[in-house]
TrEMBL record, chain A:
This is Aldehyde ferredoxin oxidoreductase. PANTHER family: ALDEHYDE FERREDOXIN OXIDOREDUCTASE (PTHR30038), TUNGSTEN-CONTAINING GLYCERALDEHYDE-3-PHOSPHATE:FERREDOXIN OXIDOREDUCTASE (PTHR30038:SF7). The keyword Iron applies. Pfam families: AFOR_C, AFOR_N.
UniProtKB/TrEMBL annotation, chain B:
Coiled coil: none annotated. It comes from the Bacteria. This is ThiS family protein. InterPro entries: Beta-grasp_dom_sf, Mopterin_synth/thiamin_S_b, ThiS/MoaD-like. Signal peptide: none annotated. Pfam families: ThiS.
Length: 666, 77
């Protein structure tokens, strides 16, 4: 076996038993590792109809097939489980240093079932796995927990630690899992599942080698890629002031322009993801006022506070995730914020700044630094938390929430003090925060049906901070991915960057001058693009690949060549895309088996322009989400009406060895 | 000769074919691309433009198959 370890560790927390399970080579060839291996194990080991917060749920920490092979931009890991937020397949993706540490312990993944009688953490080094009492850590935030564990466990190697904070302990359905001092695998409620198992942390200190078929070839690919990234830089005189202008120019035409994704890495190197906050305002990409507003509600005098140059002023250190050559991460000094409550925080990502900026009409940048650190330490998803507070603010605006109901909090738009208090309450599951701590769908159920139209979610999960009215294919993936509501699966713009058509025969080419308004219609080109997005994202997530490497283009980031060099498989890009289709279809099968109606994952109609916005760059933009979902299903080989994989599609993908009788074929 | 261009959104795109190809006289220099795309040269210091993924000067002579990329931001994150 090359590139992968060929085994997983299954930990039964109820009995404190460890079971090393060998994974046959053909499973890797069918599903890769990462999200594909996670889906395979969940489908195989999770009893049908499991309550996500019961001991029967299976929680996995999964590395990528390419992680640790010498390839670049392949250091992502995923948490997988049945999601308590959606009831379907849940996964959350994170960088840092945790992914290689999984493989250095000799496993491609570590899975947990059962529930510990009292809080524990798992420690693995070269001597093997053991469970250690974590009662003294329960109640600590994620940063404190890491520090405490480093004082408890001695190791020559720097330990990689993934942990939950108080939000996960309270089983908040929007809790995530943190590593590297506050980097979050945030989505799907994976932190709640970890908390439900009394599992405080996973601590890894192994040092085993990862072998590959052709390390020289991997090195050659890596060097060519790194050379291009290294020379992609912005001129020193470039400032954030150009970003709103760039945003405006991006939407000035309805014609497609070929894009060299490599050039976007220069922006990422300079600012990280935060460049998108001011640019997103003039493009219409960044949502405003619970997705019902526009730049007219959050004009320049407000949004200029999110200029990434102003955020960079706090940056004391840039950092890279494992095997990353871009380095979009940073550490910010926030001793001057909120009376020095915290000394530093990870540089806030675009998503967090948008979710607690334009979405809430909050222009207080310092408050966003504080909220960022509160959420990282509390272990809560900033996307879900921001959307949920936006929902509450709109309810308050409509008079559906009294001051008494909010515990005296004035939830007027942009009330920074109330937002900070609410974040603290949500993490602690106290006060009005207890109503919101489980995300927007549960909150709207508590507040009553009338509030449901104001609850922005897809199948229970809140959408990432990118507007489908600007990019309808993004809306397809919000609604059709088995883990809905995520912005990282696919979009028309992503497709343009990736240039898949240069390697995948059936992927349609984006031609200069192509009419972008055609992406608002359910046509075959849209179906093919959305299918390509879904398939390649699975290959990426099976490999541990970074989203931003994907957007640099597969003409530069040679994912398929990397996979062949690591494994010796010698597969074609088309064959890898079929693997991606198989992975995605397995995740969809999991959902159907668990009783999910895929059509129920349709995103709130506000995000498809029903009704259209009346101001701003997205004025008048709308599309028919039901039809868009249908065309995606059709091209995926799923029933166009129901979204259920057809028997023909399952047979073509070789699903015969799985328990297909659980699936009601469309 | 033909070069491959990834233009900025504000460029004159009519000079390019559907693949972003641009026909130039043999021996043409980078500023010819700016001219053909009607990008004001005064903006040059503010614009990131690489040839074959390297920063070069405006008077750099181009050759058949060169890749000329202007910066465009991505979304996501």
């Amino acid at each position: 076996m090359k590139g992968y370890c060929g085994k997983i560790l299954m930990v039964d927390l109820t009995s404190s038993a460890f079971d090393e399970i060998a994974i046959p080579d053909d499973i890797y060839e069918h599903f890769l590792s990462g999200v594909g291996l996670g889906a395979y194990i969940l489908y195989k080991y999770l009893p049908k109809g499991t309550d996500p917060l019961s001991p029967d749920n299976v929680l996995g920490f999964v590395s990528g097939l390419l992680t640790g092979t010498g390839s670049f931009m392949t250091g992502r890991w995923l948490a997988v489980c049945k999601s308590p937020l959606t009831g379907g397949f849940g996964d959350a993706n994170c960088g840092g240093t945790f992914s290689p540490a999984i493989k250095q312990c000799g496993y491609d993944a570590i899975f947990f079932k059962g529930k510990a009688a009292k809080p524990v953490f798992l420690f693995i080094d070269n001597k093997g796995p053991r469970l250690i009492d974590a009662l003294s850590l329960w109640g600590q935030d994620t940063v404190e927990t890491e520090a405490s564990i480093r004082s408890i466990v001695t190791s020559k190697k720097r330990l990689a630690i993934a942990t939950i904070g108080p939000a996960g302990e309270h089983q908040s359905l929007i809790a995530g899992i943190s590593n590297d001092g506050g980097r979050m695998a945030a989505r799907s409620g994976v932190g709640a599942v970890m908390g439900s198992k009394n599992l405080k942390a996973v601590v890894l200190g192994g040092s085993k080698l990862i072998r590959t078929q052709d390390p020289d070839e991997i090195k050659e690919i890596s060097q060519a890629y790194a050379k291009k990234v290294k020379s992609s830089n912005l001129p020193a005189i470039t400032t954030g002031a150009i970003l709103p202008i760039l945003g405006k120019s991006m939407v000035a035409t309805d014609k497609a322009i070929p894009i060299d994704g490599m050039m976007s890495t220069a922006i990422m190197k300079k600012w990280g993801t935060g460049f998108g906050n001011t640019m997103g305002m003039t493009m219409g990409d960044a949502p405003v006022k619970n997705w019902k507003g526009s730049i007219a509600d959050f004009p320049y005098r407000k949004y200029h506070h999110m200029n990434p140059d102003l955020i960079q002023k706090h940056e004391t250190q840039k950092y890279h995730c494992y095997s990353c050559i871009i380095g979009c991460g940073g550490v910010c000094d926030i001793k001057g914020v909120s009376k020095g409550r915290f000394s530093h925080t990870h540089k806030p990502e675009y998503e967090t700044v948008a979710a607690f900026g334009s979405l809430l009409l909050n222009k207080d940048r310092d408050a966003i630094f504080l909220i960022n650190e509160l959420l990282n330490r509390g272990g809560m998803d900033s996307i879900s938390a921001g959307n949920t507070i936006a929902f509450a603010m709109e309810c308050y605006e409509k008079g559906w929430l009294s001051d008494e109901a909010t515990g005296g909090l004035d939830l007027s738009w942009g009330n920074t003090a109330a937002i900070v208090t609410l974040v603290e309450q949500m993490i602690a599951a106290e006060g009005f925060g207890a109503v919101l701590q489980n995300g927007v769908k549960k909150a709207s159920e508590i507040l009553g049906l009338a509030s449901a139209p104001l609850a922005m979610h897809a199948g229970g999960q809140e959408p990432g901070m990118h507007d489908p009215r600007l990019d309808p294919i993004l809306g397809i993936h919000f609604s059709c991915d088995p883990t809905p509501g995520r912005h990282t699966i696919g979009a028309g713009s992503y497709y343009n960057y990736m240039r898949l058509w240069e390697s995948v025969s059936w992927a349609p080419k984006v031609k200069l001058g192509e009419d972008k308004t055609e992406e608002y219609e359910a046509n075959s080109n849209v179906g093919l693009k959305s299918m390509a997005n879904a398939c390649i994202k699975q290959v990426l997530d099976g490999s541990g690949g970074c989203f931003f490497a994907m957007l640099s283009g597969f003409n530069h980031f040679k994912l398929f060549d990397y996979l062949n060099a690591a494994t010796g498989w010698n597969k074609t890009p088309n064959e890898y895309m079929t693997i991606g289709l198989r992975m995605q279809t397995l995740r969809q099968c999991f959902n159907v088996r668990e009783g999910i109606n895929p059509r129920d994952f349709k995103i709130n109609k506000r995000l498809s322009g029903q009704p259209p916005l009346t101001e701003g760059p997205l004025k008048g933009k709308s599309f028919k989400m039901d039809e868009m979902m249908g065309i995606h299903y059709q091209f995926m080989g799923w029933d166009q009406k129901t979204g259920i994989p057809t028997r023909a599609a399952l047979e073509n993908l070789g699903f015969c060895d799985l328990e297909m009788e659980d699936i009601s074929h469309g | 000769m033909k070069v491959q261009v990834y233009p900025p959104p504000f460029a004159n795109l009519t000079a390019l074919d559907e693949n972003g190809g641009l026909d130039l006289e043999p021996g043409a220099r980078l500023f010819s691309v700016y001219r053909r795309l009607k990008i004001p040269l005064v903006l040059q210091p503010l614009i990131v433009c690489n040839v074959n993924y390297q920063r070069v000067k405006l008077n750099t002579q181009l050759k058949e198959g060169d890749v000329i990329s202007f910066i465009l931001p991505l979304t996501g994150g």
